[in-house]
Write a structure and sequence with these properties.
Blueprint (H helix, E strand, L loop, with lengths): L1 E9 L5 E10 L4 E5 L6 H8 L7 E6 L2 E2 L5 H9 L1 E4 L11 H11 L6 H10 L15 H13 L5 E5 L7 H16 L3 E5 L3 H7 L5 E7 L2 E4 L5
Parallel strand pairs: 3-8, 3-9, 6-7, 7-8
Antiparallel strand pairs: 1-2, 1-4, 4-5, 9-10
Bound molecules: adenosine-5'-triphosphate.
Adenosine-5'-triphosphate (ATP) binds next to helix 1.
């Protein structure tokens, strides 16, 4: 699904942040990406989406070499990737259900109302469908953000510290939804510095843990 071969990256004017990164995210896999603040987790995710271009090496996505894709090609590829951030922005004047449907609205696609209702039920927000975003709790916002991230049925879901602002119970609930997505066949990668959370969810999913350290990305051992 994503394949990196000897990838390197540094922001302009900065030091090399990632180097010699070689890995494969197999279809249907579940990965955690961990590492200290500033190690490059967000940067890694932005390389996966084609938002950033590596300074060396090769990134393949869905069987295509990203370097050979046109701007439109990258845009098409991004539609196959759902991204969940730590702080999701909503349009505060629109009810939750319309916020969740935004990716359909902005790409002029029809809204399948039963499917949309099903999605809201899946994230436990049926009762809040008409609520405005400012009235939602942090956990509700993140579950709405997850619904929006998957409304275009992406093959790959990337989550960047999705539980950063949530308490333990809400964090687990969100992660369980990500595990369910994975069970339904989606490839999932969750960046988090919260090792306790990884330990807590591990019995429920066959996850591999990637650790960024010193610019390298390596598989962590079982002694997490
Ligand atoms: N657009 C940018 N231009 C220059 N430097 C950047 C840019 N974005 C991030 N950086 C730097 O790159 C390094 C890695 O940042 P990144 O956000 O990828 O780390 P992270 O592991 O996700 O951190 P955190 O856990 O704090 O979110 C940091 O030193 C950061 O300041």
């Amino acid at each position: 699904m994503i394949e990196m071969q000897d990838v390197g990256f540094g922001y302009r004017g900065g030091d090399q942040l990632l180097s010699h990164v070689s890995l494969v995210l197999q279809p249907g896999s579940f990965h955690f990406l961990t590492g200290p603040s500033g190690a490059g987790k967000t940067t890694f995710l932005r390389l996966c989406t084609g938002e950033l271009t590596p300074s060396g090496g090769r990134i393949g996505a869905f069987g295509r070499d990203m370097a050979e894709l046109s701007r439109d090609g990258i845009a098409l590829l991004r539609r196959r990737i759902g991204v969940l951030h730590q702080d999701t922005q909503f349009l505060d004047h629109l009810p939750l259900v319309e916020n969740v449907a935004l990716p359909l609205t902005v790409s002029d696609r029809p809204i399948d109302m039963p499917a949309l209702r099903g999605l809201l039920a899946w994230v436990g927000l049926t009762a809040h469908a008409r609520a405005l975003p400012p009235s939602l709790s942090g956990g509700e916002r993140q579950r709405a953000a997850l619904a929006r991230a998957v409304i275009l049925s992406p093959d790959l879901v990337l989550a960047d510290e999705p539980t950063g602002n949530l308490d333990e119970e809400m964090s687990m609930r969100l992660l369980e939804l990500l595990v369910e997505l994975n069970r339904s066949g989606k490839t999932v990668l969750v960046a988090t510095h919260d090792l306790n959370l990884i330990r807590a969810i591990k019995p429920q999913v066959q996850a591999r843990v990637l650790r960024i350290s010193g610019g390298r990305v390596q598989l962590a051992g079982a002694d997490l």
